[in-house]
Amino acid sequence: MKRTGSAVWQGGIRDGKGTVSTESGVLDGAQYSFSTRFEEGKGTNPEELLAAAHAGCFSMALSKQIEDLGLKAESINTTAAVRLEKTDAGFTITKVHLDVTARVPGADAAGFETAANNAKAGCPVSRLFNAEITMDAKLEG
Known about the structure:
The protein is of the alpha+beta class and 141 residues long. It is built from 4 helices and 6 strands, in the order βββααββααβ. The strands form 2 sheets. A 3-stranded antiparallel sheet has the order 1-2-3. A 3-stranded mixed sheet has the order 4-5-6, with helices on one face.
């Protein structure tokens, strides 16, 4: 399986602007710039897109882990926070924090925690990052 995304950038780092698109067309010329990445400009940025990808990948992986327990999730809500920091090597994604809340009828806390940790370690996007990945996972009653 292969999926593609593309970007076009025009101009300098501070005064330039770009667009990102995906093969599926879900993103088609979505605007990004220095201000959307490092300030509060309107548009997207690479870290926001990585966060959404990680949240989606993790949620699917957790669903699989829960099914492996013989259960089915009613809902899995995940927010990924990607931290971009200036290091000696330059700007680096240093951490990702997953905040997860799931409703899983019949699940117990220990089984859910194991499933969540397995999903965090095993999701393809988690394995892509060379960063610390932390998580708060809550099982709703």
